[in-house]
Structure formats: structure tokens, C-alpha cells
Design goal:
Layout (H helix, E strand, L loop, with lengths): L2 H9 L9 E3 L15 E10 L11 E7 L2
Antiparallel strand pairs: 1-2, 2-3
């Protein structure tokens, strides 16, 4: 996903005070067990622009989270 798509999706959210979680399903999770994975809560956002040290070829946005 790129920033443009993320912004487009988030712009449609009416309640801007909602918490943000990141769900990471285990491999092989089926529809019956779709909620059996930890939720990671978004703690930080880091922006690395193209040309920054270590990001000479491509930039990226990193979302950091934890289970706490």
C-alpha cells in the first residue's frame, strides 16, 4: 500500500479519534478462526524520504506498533 491509498481510505473515516490497530493473521488462519491473532496498536509513524541515508533508491513510511 502506498501513502496515497492510505490517505484516501483514512479520509473516509468519520471518527478521527479512533485508535489504530494492526492485525497480523497467522499463516493458515481460516474464516472460522479469523480472530485468533494478536492486535498490535499503532505507536509511531516514521517517514523516510527517498534520498535519506539508507533510503537512496526508495523512501518509505514505517508504522510501528506493539501489543500493549
Amino acid at each position: 500500500m502506498n501513502v496515497e491509498t492510505l490517505e484516501e481510505i483514512l479520509s473516509k473515516v468519520k471518527d478521527k479519534k479512533l485508535l489504530v490497530s494492526i492485525s497480523v493473521p497467522y499463516k493458515g488462519v481460516d474464516d472460522e478462526h479469523h480472530d485468533e491473532y494478536p492486535n498490535y496498536w499503532l505507536n509511531s509513524i516514521f517517514v523516510h524520504n527517498k534520498g535519506d541515508s539508507g533510503y537512496e533508491q526508495n523512501g518509505e513510511v514505517q508504522l510501528w506498533g506493539s501489543e500493549e
